# Entry
Amino acid sequence: MVESTLKQDAKAPNTNRIGLTLGDYKGSPSTLCDGCGHDAITSQIIKACYELAVEPHKVAKLSGIGCSSKTPAYFLSRAHGFNAVHGRMPSIATGVSMANKDLTLLAVSGDGDTASIGLGQFCHLVRRNVPMIYVIENNGVYGLTKGQFSATADIGSKLKTGVSNELPPIDICSLAVEMGCGFVGRSFAGDPKQLVALLKAAMSHKGTAILDVVSPCVTFNNHEGSTKSYKYAKEHEMPIHEIGYIPFYEQIAVDYEPGSAVEVKMHDGSHIVLRKAAKDYDPRNKLAAIDTIHKAIAEHQFLTGLLYIDEKKPDFTTIMQLDDQPLASLGQDKLRPGKDALSAIMAELK
Amino acid sequence: MVESTLKQDAKAPNTNRIGLTLGDYKGSPSTLCDGCGHDAITSQIIKACYELAVEPHKVAKLSGIGCSSKTPAYFLSRAHGFNAVHGRMPSIATGVSMANKDLTLLAVSGDGDTASIGLGQFCHLVRRNVPMIYVIENNGVYGLTKGQFSATADIGSKLKTGVSNELPPIDICSLAVEMGCGFVGRSFAGDPKQLVALLKAAMSHKGTAILDVVSPCVTFNNHEGSTKSYKYAKEHEMPIHEIGYIPFYEQIAVDYEPGSAVEVKMHDGSHIVLRKAAKDYDPRNKLAAIDTIHKAIAEHQFLTGLLYIDEKKPDFTTIMQLDDQPLASLGQDKLRPGKDALSAIMAELK
Amino acid sequence: MKTLASETSSKVEQGRIVNNFSIHVATINGSGSQSSNNVLMRSLFQMGIPVSGKNLFPSNIAGLPTWFTIRVNKDGWIARKKEVDILVAMNPQTAYEDVMSLPSGAVCISPTELNLEKARQDVIHYVVPFTELANQATDQIKLRKLLTNMIYVGVVAELLGIDFAEIEKSIRRQFEGKAKAIDLNLVAVDAGRKWAKESAAKKDPYYVERMNKTEGKIIIDGNAACAIGSMFAGVSVITWYPITPSSSLCEQLIDYLHEYRRDEANGKATYAVIQAEDELAAIGMALGAGWAGARSMTSTSGPGISLMAEFVGLGYFAEIPTVIFDVQRVGPSTGMPTRTMQGDILSAYLLSHGDTKHIALLPGSVEECYSQALDAFNLAERFQTPVFVLSDLDLGMNNWMSDPFPYPEKPMDRGKVLNAQELEKLGKFERYRDVDGDGIPYRTLPGTNSPIAGYFTRGSGHNEAAAYTERADDYLRLMDRLNRKYQTARKYVPKPVIETQAGAKVGIIAYGSSDFAVQESRAQLNAEGLATDYLRLRAIPFTEELRDFVEKHDRIYVVEQNRDAQMRDLIRLEMPDLAMKLQSVLHYDGLPIDARSVTDAILSQEK
Amino acid sequence: MKTLASETSSKVEQGRIVNNFSIHVATINGSGSQSSNNVLMRSLFQMGIPVSGKNLFPSNIAGLPTWFTIRVNKDGWIARKKEVDILVAMNPQTAYEDVMSLPSGAVCISPTELNLEKARQDVIHYVVPFTELANQATDQIKLRKLLTNMIYVGVVAELLGIDFAEIEKSIRRQFEGKAKAIDLNLVAVDAGRKWAKESAAKKDPYYVERMNKTEGKIIIDGNAACAIGSMFAGVSVITWYPITPSSSLCEQLIDYLHEYRRDEANGKATYAVIQAEDELAAIGMALGAGWAGARSMTSTSGPGISLMAEFVGLGYFAEIPTVIFDVQRVGPSTGMPTRTMQGDILSAYLLSHGDTKHIALLPGSVEECYSQALDAFNLAERFQTPVFVLSDLDLGMNNWMSDPFPYPEKPMDRGKVLNAQELEKLGKFERYRDVDGDGIPYRTLPGTNSPIAGYFTRGSGHNEAAAYTERADDYLRLMDRLNRKYQTARKYVPKPVIETQAGAKVGIIAYGSSDFAVQESRAQLNAEGLATDYLRLRAIPFTEELRDFVEKHDRIYVVEQNRDAQMRDLIRLEMPDLAMKLQSVLHYDGLPIDARSVTDAILSQEK
Ligand SMILES: Cc1ncc(C[n+]2csc(CCOP(=O)(O)OP(=O)(O)O)c2C)c(N)n1
Ligand SMILES: Cc1ncc(C[n+]2csc(CCOP(=O)(O)OP(=O)(O)O)c2C)c(N)n1
Ligand code: SF4
Ligand code: SF4
Ligand SMILES: [Mg+2]
Ligand SMILES: [Mg+2]
# Structure
């Protein structure tokens, strides 16, 4: 103990606004395959939380089942985490959100977890607009069960075994837009800059923020013929704009070129600045979003960036008119009505 | 017995091309509430089948659970019917389709059955493009459990109890289009002409044909404040075009005015003729379909008619490259490989 | 007939049978007869006579046969009575069969046009010109059908001698605030009354007389009682998916919460009720909320229980509190959704794959629906596990008399939860360590401001520190501790209620809604010379009293409402050495169990 | 130590232990050790020595500890051996613990850099410079790790005396068609062989010698056997959702079907395999297909079984055939997905709410995986109901020796299906009428060209004519008939296998993958002077042989792989009068059961 304190003094690590080091945002070591896209995303989640100076104990990490769903164990070990059952994390998240609206819900799922078994819960979560960050680590396969196709696998893509997929992919982003999601973004595990910016933006959104992150499975889907391999993704990625994020508490130096910009005010008072890339893209236009996504799909391209945003939609805790104090922290005085209440009820039944 | 034969001779009822009367397409008497929209749809299903001279024994009727899902008992009593569990009829349908691809699958579901509990299966069914007619009798409530909101209830609509719905509705049609459905139509239980035409068109489509039929619940959702009441629906219905249907076997006299037309060739060789209404609407344009539907929703209008069609998408029996004979009718000779096959397999394992 | 012995004996009392009969009203559902039946039942209740009302309704909204059966019994036996004494045959679809199934000497009140007189000569008929009376009562054609129902109330009331002041009072209560409806219904009752007075000579022996046995009592259904119990238990996250017969539990809870747990000024609520998209989501939300520290619950029936199987296993294994109300209906599958049964005992107890077993409470009255709802939330948090409350349609949806519910004495037991201060003192926290030797570990809630509070919850193998493990020894320790925890629960669950009689060698075991029929049956058995002791189970796992009871008796009859003798089997497994003592009385036709069936079944086995 | 008696006795044979030991290879998963282990195992097999190989792998794709354990046994005992005789400690993460858990006198082969020699002095060490050898074998750095695994094969082979021709043969088989890989692997094996020959003086007693006990035999895993059985059973609609350890059943089935049930010319198939979106959909599709007349199946594991609960109740109640393979893994919840258990006995048997009970088959070998797959489809169609086949991870995913499977003798039994001609002859059809008194009604298939063929299938109450009903009498008749049907099944399911010994007063009952361990245990018990009889269950419901067996013995041990003695309980319920005879031997740590544990548990209870 004495030694470690000494060491800390000797070479004090950088800390963020609330005095925590990057290490304080880490979790246990990853047991995923070397080079798995999911690990890259984990790093960016750690970075985003560190830079935003998120208080770890105020975060609840949620996931389903899959390689991707294991990752919450690999970041924010100080936060509570809940690795639920396959495909049904959205319902767990909804319950957590109701019980404690002050928590930041940070969820990680896979494409199988979300788009196959979990599709119904996913859609209903989005419809309710439960406030949370929902990251889909999308590799087009079931990693953990050794490489079967998920519902986001592209038509014609081939498994290592030679089996090829004959069904059209579900595009999580356009589906989310269709379901009325107020924050829809896409990124790529190999693009840390964009990813961390989108993560930060998502954390400021009050409502369900969907982030579909293409995350190659090096073991089962990283070969020719697969459109979700690193090679394919790097070649076909098509960023539509960049995001500079200005958090509420401190200004962050943005290191990319300024350009023509759309400024979006977030619920917590912070701002997202969207810079237009070559294309003129307005993420507040729902139909354009769907159109652009569909066209990109038709051209076998990933459309990345903040694809759609609508800050007006009330989130579920607002709709539910919850008490100011989290329900989980209410005591008997607030939870159990008085004797007069019971008497009144009994009187009515006489 | 003798008597009834005599009666038949005395006043021979009309018959269709295969010699069946309208009565032959009926089922047991309905036990729904008087005036329920679902009964009106039942009548049109009977009519469409009669007029198309569908062979009843080649139909499999399928449903989930709900007032709507009871209706397959009220038509085509000669056909086999399967009233499954709540929300999971799509999987039953998929299995039936694989087992016997020669059957015409005629399914009826409710909005609760499809859009609440059944949303996941619905989306995956559409994705697979299982060939079937899928009618949603949409009343915005759970009729059978006495009037709770379903996921298609409009924001702000009110139950008799005074409880009001705060969540946005799921639009089954635009969701179906988003999921890649090749036939998406909407109608109204009180519009027999349009409904029967759409039903006939759906029966000629090779793939999943989704028909969302607004079907007022007279008992629980037919009051002021509800947007799915008869009154509301009649006032706000907005037909975008009319459909004349020319079946493969016989010409049917169309009794409405001709206009500028888009002719769509169906898989079985029959044609649908779409007449443009005031608006210039092309049901083959996916984005336009989504756009038009969304705009109508924003204006609180029902967009009825054939909203989207794409005949190119291969249906699931085609994708699966099924034997020419239905799997269910294959005998041991085709199902059990010979002794040599087993020997070969055993040899490989030695 | 021997089985009618006790009824026959009361008949002979001066030819008058007072406050002891059943009325069976056959109508068409959706025809508005429910208000009439309620009025009839409440009027009797207000006269101080013990009464119960059971709705035998179809799984349908309108147009199918429905029956309402009222039991009037001066001794307080309020289970369903097997024999119908007075039939009101309003439904042409079933009238013939209804009248044919009457015992000889029963009463049949029916509309003229049904011509039921011819069908049974051994029955006392009152043939009422309902259509004519309705036509006279109103000229609004639409209302006539509805009014017919109130007319039979007038007829029945006059024949039995029900106080019309009480009828009026209950009509005013039923239609509170709707002056027009009150007037019209009073007119209808009066039409019936007049007709009966003027045109019907009293031919039957049934009468009512004022008593004082209902004073201070309430009438309530079990679902409302569960709802009230849950609210006073402090539930704050309620998730549900509509399903008969459980829907009215949450629907009534919503009303109560709206009234008592909401700030009227700003509309803010100390609860959240979520209508989920299905039962998988409902239980997921309840578990999420329980994990995050809220008292959570869901309510469902058979099909919902099946859909919850996977998640409930997670709750067991990852140790997450929540309360699941299962208002049982007739299975398997969709079964008969509007009929009653105790068919989910084994499925709930064992719910989920692998070695799982759950705590389940077994309310036997509306009062226990209330008190066990309170217990359930305490047990769920104490044992950090899903707790079932196994009610059923008969208990949940039918009207029962009860003493008013007492205000909870015990404060909420939130179980072993460590807060930030406690964690700091301890300096160390392991989520799944059995610190106290009772199998129950300590937990922390998300949001706890301490660097050591966080842990990772998972449905996969985990060790004491909540870390992932696949080690054989870790797994064994975990499973054995879960078993230890389950054994600890035996000391916390409600104990059985035992009633004894001098010299009884036969014991009866029952649970849930069978209680009333069993109590009555014991009186019948006594009359037949058979003394019995009675143990009413109130929870799984069983407590030590059960073995004592079985040991002490020569023969035990386990009375239950399912085909497969589910509870009998569980008891046999609990005490294999005594297994052969345990026999079954099974009632599983979907109708509420009645005393006569129990008595006959026991007597036939005792011979 | 007493428990080592039998092994010790073989040790003393001239200091040489021939064809009787276990090899335990510890590596990191995803490091390519699986081919090496297969090569090792097959080489032994090709030498005619009985052998089995078990993979103890993590629920993870790469980087976590994994073990492969090979049992070599001249007497044909191929269950897992509890004690490790030869450890190949390649995994630094677990090496210390691995070596510490060796019995005294065991062998440890390990890489130089792990320094294991110091940890245990009472163990025979072979310290191998693997890195050096790998560096010499190839200059492709990427390949070195992979090759290391083949180097240990060479070392082990040389030490034990495995014929290198057989090693080469199995390498050629393993890497068929990949000439480069074959060459490289041969080089690696040779490097290991050479090193062992030149630098390792044989210090241990373990040897292999050619035998003729595997001639004509095959090596196969249970999932492949189920797949082959299903194909020859004529399955045509297969639905599944990936889940360990069941995935490989459908994946191998896909391969076989592709080869043998597809028209090569036009690609048309006599089957459809659907990867569903989840298990609810998988069972729904299977039921839809079964209803429409196809032989259908699905395959899953614990969590999937839970998700199928609602639909399986529909299958029971509406009487729809399908086959459900449950390759059991460790529960509850996600549990340990890559460990083995027999934990779903009760959940499968009782699956769904209400009074349900199902037919379940219990394959005890890979051969029975094949034959019971054939049986299951016949039973499902004969009884018009879902039939479970309860395999487990040990049986399903591990390699077992077996005689080749015989071609099915019996033709497919499609059960009571009426076609159009038969219907015409009958003139009348009622779907749920018990015409034959065996509880099994007749059905028709959709598409049958007859005006009376159609009927309406529902999960709600129905009468003989398949019409909706809520009548109490209809319901009772239906439920009692379903029960009668279930009783009929007792005469159709596979009978238990019984093995007796003269004078045995103790009986053992087991089922499934416990068979091999129990057989070996009986030999051990014999050696300890305890004669036993043995009944191996092969199906639920039980057949009459079971009661006979229990009656005949003083004490019965039910050996099973779960915590809660699930099968023992079912047997107790079957014969409450004999309940106290039934005791338990439970093994539930997730590792395949071994003979020694069974023997010790029985002996300790016999004392
Ligand atoms: C109910 C259930 N069915 C199946 C499984 C097996 N299973 C575990 S992970 C997984 C798929 C995961 O795929 P995805 O969500 O895409 O995650 P990835 O591993 O690709 O990151 C499956 C099918 C399970 N755990 N539970
Ligand atoms: C698993 C399950 N949960 C709940 C129910 C109860 N239930 C029966 S019908 C129904 C809703 C039906 O609504 P919808 O599909 O819209 O049909 P409608 O009655 O309005 O025509 C529900 C919730 C059920 N049968 N099964
Ligand atoms: S299998 Fe694929 S998704 Fe899973 S850890 Fe490995 S690379 Fe990642
Ligand atoms: S309740 Fe509504 S949906 Fe159901 S039958 Fe009546 S009108 Fe139709
Ligand atoms: Mg994936
Ligand atoms: Mg509806």
About this structure: Residues B 32-33, 36, 38, 67, 139, 143-144, 217-220; C 61 surround iron/sulfur cluster (ligand 4) (CB under 6 Å). Chain B has a mean pLDDT of 84. Residues 232 and 314 of chain B are 38 Å apart (CA to CA).
